Amino acid sequence: MILKIALILFVLFLFWLAWSYWRELKYRKKPFYGLRDIGWRQSCPPNIQEKIHSIALVGDLGNAGPVTDDPVMQSIKSWLTQEGQKSTILFLGDNIYPVGLPPEGHRHYQGARQKLSFQLDLFKGYNGKAIYLSGNHDWNKGRKNGLSYVLRQEDVITKHLKDPTSYLPAQGAPGPVTWPISDKVIVIIINTQRWVQKGLVNRKVKNEFGLNETEVFFQELQALLNQNKDKFILVAAHHPLYSNALHGGKFTVKQQLFPLTFVHKKALIPLPLLGLAFRLYRTYIGATEDMSFPPYKRFRKRILKLLHPYNNVFYVGGHDHNLQYFQVKGNHYAVSGAGSKTNFVAKGGKATFSHEHKGFMVLDHYRDGSVWLKVLEPTGQPNDPTVVMFQKCVYPKT
After folding, report:
1. Cα gap 376→45, rounded to integer Å
2. Residue 385, preceding peptide bond in cis (omega within 30° of 0)
3. Residue 398: is its pLDDT beyond 80?
4. In what helix (H) or strand (E) does residue 147 lie, and over which residues does it extend?
């Protein structure tokens, strides 16, 4: 009897896998649009001559090649040339794979410098503003000596660009740091890696007012939100607050059936029970960089509580290698981590747009005070390098 029940359950499990895989194939790598924004093509921004400033949001560019060969780099270069002085480009961390910028003599050093050089070459003749943020890979994948890797990367970038404010927050600090765009738009930059990074023993050290690093950070962020409540606030970070991808606990059927593919993509050994256990672990307990990881979870819960009372905030991160957009409780949340890699992203949930495709996002600010989100993706065609896959007015509230 027990054997028969086990056999029935196993057959049902196989049917579920087949059904899930069939559903996944139908939408995998196709853009998803929620009902709220399914008619996005009918909405058009003001005339291009009315544009005041443009902000590019590029995440996880750390594996990109030279601009001559890489479609995303070509799209970025085209955007930089077109927008010129009235533009800002934000790199949302994971600027160098796999471990950031190691010391000279390290086996990854030459490759890391080459990847960074490809990016810095983009700015020849560019008169706008470039700002780099750090991600977990820039911190030597979160290892205890990660701060030295970040400081080394910061030193190279700020010296090359001859701009001490081109890497923020400086010195691996948590932030928040502000960068004003206009009298109606401001950027707040935060270092989310501080909440999951190993070796930062000073986080709980109290200052003269009896506050530790966490309390100081949230008090300063709260003050900035209040001071700028009549502006459009862009909060730029590396770790997202909403995600339908890996760090949000979403997996493909293949990953569940063949969990060793996380270690090597050709390790096609069927271990469904191990895959289920791994999925439950990543969803409810979390690896260091997952949204379910307790420090990350506590940070996310607290910052969302801080942001939800407002309706003028656009929070963007990278981290997951895809493009996602969410509108939750009057605010806007995005994932723009597809600069050089792509990973699976599930459709639906709170997302109204998602796509497993390389690309980046742009926020355009116009004279009428409106701010429009655009999702740009490379086509790989020399005469038409970029296509708009989604756009929406995100400010003022519509």
Report:
1. 15
2. no
3. no
4. helix 146-161
Entry pTM:
0.91
Residue 217 gets which letter from DSSP?
H
Neighbours of 367 (CB within 10 A): 12
The packing angle between helices 294-307 and 213-227, to 10°, is: 30
156 pLDDT more than 90: yes
Instruction: Return mean pLDDT, the chain.
Output: 89
Burial of 135 per CB tally in 10 Å (0-12, 13-18, 19+): buried
Q: Which helix (H) or strand (E) holds 278?
A: helix 272-284
**Close Cβ partners of 14 (under 8 Å, ≥ 6 residues apart):** none
DSSP 115: H
Does 221 or 206 have the greater pLDDT score?
221
Strand pairing report for 313-317 and 232-236: parallel
Q: Where are the beta strands (DSSP E) in the chain?
A: 32-33, 51-58, 87-91, 129-132, 177-180, 185-189, 232-236, 313-317, 323-328, 331-336, 351-355, 360-366, 371-381, 384-395
Task: Label residue 1 exposed, middle or buried (CB < 10 Å: 0-12, 13-18, 19+).
Answer: exposed
